[in-house]
Amino acid sequence: MKDTTLKEIATKLGISITTVSKALKNYPDVSAKTKQAVIDLAQNLHYTPNSFAVNLRTKESKTIGLIIPTLVHDFFSNVIQGILEEAEKRDYLVIILQSNEKFEFEKKQIDLLLNKRVDGILMSLSNETDEFEHLKTILSHNTPLVLFDKIAKLVNCSKVTINDRKAAYDAVSYLIKKGYKKIAHFRGSYLPQNSIDRFLGYKKALEDNNIAYDSSLVFVCENNPDFEDGYANAKKVVNEHPEIDAIFAVTDLVAVGIIKYCNEVGIAIPTQIAVFGFSNWFMSSVISPKLSTIDQPGFEIGRKSASILFDEINLKKNNSPVIFQSIELGTSIIEREST
Amino acid sequence: MKDTTLKEIATKLGISITTVSKALKNYPDVSAKTKQAVIDLAQNLHYTPNSFAVNLRTKESKTIGLIIPTLVHDFFSNVIQGILEEAEKRDYLVIILQSNEKFEFEKKQIDLLLNKRVDGILMSLSNETDEFEHLKTILSHNTPLVLFDKIAKLVNCSKVTINDRKAAYDAVSYLIKKGYKKIAHFRGSYLPQNSIDRFLGYKKALEDNNIAYDSSLVFVCENNPDFEDGYANAKKVVNEHPEIDAIFAVTDLVAVGIIKYCNEVGIAIPTQIAVFGFSNWFMSSVISPKLSTIDQPGFEIGRKSASILFDEINLKKNNSPVIFQSIELGTSIIEREST
DNA sequence: TTGTAGGCGTTATCAG
DNA sequence: CTGATAACGCCTACAA
Q1: Residue A225 φ then ψ, to 5°
Q2: A259: Cβ–Cβ under 8 A, 6 or more apart, which residues?
Q3: Chain B contacts of A107, Cβ < 8 Å?
Q4: B300-339 pLDDT, tens per residue?
Q5: What's the pLDDT score for residue B223?
Q6: Closest Cα to residue A160, out of A123, A201, A127?
Q7: Counting one residue from A and one from B, how many pairs have CB atoms under 8 Å apart?
């Protein structure tokens, strides 16, 4: 089935392409008669505008790009859902790319999206990313960019995050109030802003409660942070630091690793050791013991990021000035069985 | 920063657009000198071809579409990863859409992708889908289509699945061999092929082992199937059918729901009741007790589906005949603590 | 070796 | 109210 074009409709009706185009776009200066004829024929022939041609003319693709570190990830999956929902409302399509936490991939993928001439880009940075020239490339192309979750504070664009520092502070304060005294932290790798902020929140909470910060109680999750990190570090803690009575993990996945290790070797949670996560993955509510954690609104983060991006795309189209926003969405403590 | 075009390079160099184009595409009939000059300038000006124009000329978008029922889903996330990996190899981008298990959305999304003129479409059908005209629309547009996981047997296109019936048969046979006698099945909704096949595998295994099939031991998961289905049906089973000693669930998520209920009310797994899942979600290896299940190779399913799709896209481009494939990938039993 | 011309399908301007 | 014309940026016969 060949695709119908304006030209075909025009010749079949013995009128000009221009008129057909106008009729279909409901221009006022076409007679009701011709308009109707055009519309009818277009419907019969299943006419749909050739998006390639439209893109070329209008210089927009009605498509945005999304780069995330990992797909198999409860939090990011929820973010994507939020983005897709918002995109659908505005008749936009979303191209999704995965950086795999690699800076090099991230860079390449930005180029791909820019070459594709997407109308805007949404990104959460990889854990390796410590310089931001590639982000500036996006801006220099005048392509709207919104960062979320793992952001670069110094890059001049809109951002959607939670207040990681405060959330971590709340979590650790909660543990302290519960009576835990030796609280370890399994932190994320050194670069991502959210990992830094969660660490700082942890530290601040200790200090504000007159507990000396002890760097030997902080363990770095080298990998992603991943389940394995939690498992391996839990082992270390149990053997080398029996005095520890609680662990604040940078992520639920890490926390689940801790729980698994403790379950395997028969360490009682929370009586011997308490575990606190971060993100509120679905999994956390079904493991035993159920994990106390911070609820991080992934879906909302996705929606808000997309919504800001679309606003910026529209402003740009009207040559209106764009004011970058930094949005912080709220979090809350979910108390369950592990603390 | 305005985008560089062939024209700009041409005028700056005082040569024709044609020559520039040829030089950049490494045509043999351009002098080494001019070629070099063009390439150098192109690099300086950061020339990249305008994909809108290329699309229009070549009539291909170097983009494929993917429609899946749900994103927040371990299995589908893995499928997507496989697809993205394969797409990246071939310099293709992927537009992802979520049908939310709704037939109407699925239909609309097909139209979106077709209008976008993607070069091919990958799909797993929604649970509601029971007629396939919309899929035929794809084929009538001459757009390659590959179905995976939840497929329509009657539609004439390539398919990638596992052998759901055999996998279910294996699972239930395993339970029987383990000595379980009253085995219930929490099945998926009535339409999806994989839900039907898993049910049939369950039934066949019973029959082949001289256990009378009892329809009152089969419970339908109305929702997705979802965690809640498992939880609610487990409650029913425990109260109304205390004779049941094992449950074969259509999905890990359902199985996890069962486990959660049993844990809450103090029913011992597997001694009082055994639980067997399907899919091998990550979660299943970290809950307590760890879930026995069927390993379903999501990543491979994604890779294979994409790979077939790209092959068909290429064949079509060369006007070569396409032979549709139906691939079945292998599964295996993962024995853990719940059985 | 280089360049001219036409076209991909649509939209916008401007004249009739 | 209608249509001719040009342009978006690139590609490719075909000429020169």
Answers
A1: -70, 150
A2: A230, A269, A275, A287, A289, A291, A338, B286
A3: none
A4: 999 999 999 999 999 999 889 999 999 999 999 999 999 9
A5: 76
A6: A123
A7: 117
